[in-house]
Amino acid sequence: MLNIRKYALGPVQTNCYIIANAARECLIIDPGEEGEFLIREIRKANLKPQAIVLTHAHFDHIGAVDDLRDAFHIPVYMHKKEKEWLGNPGLNGSGKYAQLPDYSIRPADAFLEAEKATTIGSFQFDVVHTPGHSPGSISLIFEQDGFAVVGDTLFKRSVGRTDLIGGDSKLLLKSIHDHLLSLDEETVIYPGHDEPTTVGEEIDQNPFLNGF
Q1: pLDDT of residue 81 exceeding 90
Q2: Which of 32, 80, 105, 144 has the fewest Cβ atoms nearer than 10 Å?
Q3: CATH numbers and ranges of domains, the chain
């Protein structure tokens, strides 16, 4: 059974998830900010990070990547469609806001293949390409454990914004319908912001998905 820790971090309270197994190995998903805090939390829990996985490369999901990879000497995984975004404030969105510094992160170490079962360390999950919020958005499906980490694709009673670079509202809804609503209705959805939900709740109650 996997243990999931959720931390809402940074100026827009982006969810970082730390997923740990019984051996205390862990994956760090979307460390958006507050790197020193996350490092302390991981060490306090005696966890052994295996990798950082990014659901997409917007600034609020990547801010602490270099702090964590340097502290734990671990690789960073993402979708190749956004490989140029980490170091480019014009693409990752930080350049859009005068009150923010320009976020420039070193390149990813490896790229995840979508529609394929993936193993990182002892963790096994499916990677599905769910573009629409951004071109390289992915969702991580832990089917045996009954949950999915979906970045900013689907939220509780809402969906991801599509007014940023590469956003596409029709493609977003198609991604949600094809890859997320098709999961078991009891599957817990862990989004990039706000609280978890389930597939069944969103089928029944999400006003943006009424057409499905």
Answers
A1: yes
A2: 144
A3: 3-209 (3.60.15.10)
